[in-house]
Amino acid sequence: MKSLIIKEINSFLGSLLGYLILALFLxxxxxxxxxxxxxxxxxxxYADLEPxxxxxxxxxxFLIPALSMRAIAEERKNHTWELLRTSPLxxxxxxxxxxxxxxxxxxxxxxxxxxxxxxxxxxxxxPGNLDQASFFGSWIGLLLIGAVFGAVGIFSSSLTSQQxxxxxxxxxxxxxxYFGLSAAADFQFGAxxxxxxxxxxxxxxxxxxxxxxxxNDLFFFFGMIWLFLGASxxxxxxx
Length: 239
Fold this sequence. Notes:
With 239 residues, the protein is mainly alpha-helical. It has helices at 2-13, 16-35, 41-44, 50-68, 73-77, 81-85, 91-110, 114-123, 132-158, 163-185, 191-198, 201-209, 215-238.
């Protein structure tokens, strides 16, 4: 599994497309947080990084399916999946190795955003006037959303041998889990609205952004990850 993880990371970082995707993510987030007047922290006037945590899930909806679309689809398209299956790894271990490689790439994309924390920490008046619990709760929430989206991307890649189709499916599923269920809850009434809202990633992400790490939210995120990884394994076994 270690060799497969390293291979996946090297294949992504060894191509211009990989660096381009990461650069576009960091540039887009940088423009949103510091430049665009509607969301710029400098124009907002408060030591707060709410724009970073509000808009990053939107970018993740497209970024992570782009990272994961080739994970299994490319293996099947190039007819190397059969060769990979001859290695002393089960299907679950192959899926898990590819998923862990995506997690590393998501972490590489998120770690530079910690520079924003130190910037705002020194720009506050007085310096250090920042809700640090809320920041790190939201940052952990972003990492967990990226982890769930990575599992969704693996599942989408297992459904087809075409990378573009895997990307479109990944974007659709990520959008549905984060935005779609919350929007659907607005059309429900009574207790059903709350239950539908609880199934959305945004509901649990908002809870973490308050700076309180609740076990219910963590169980939900990890449950979603195992659900989609398990669905990926079942799909590949059936194929």
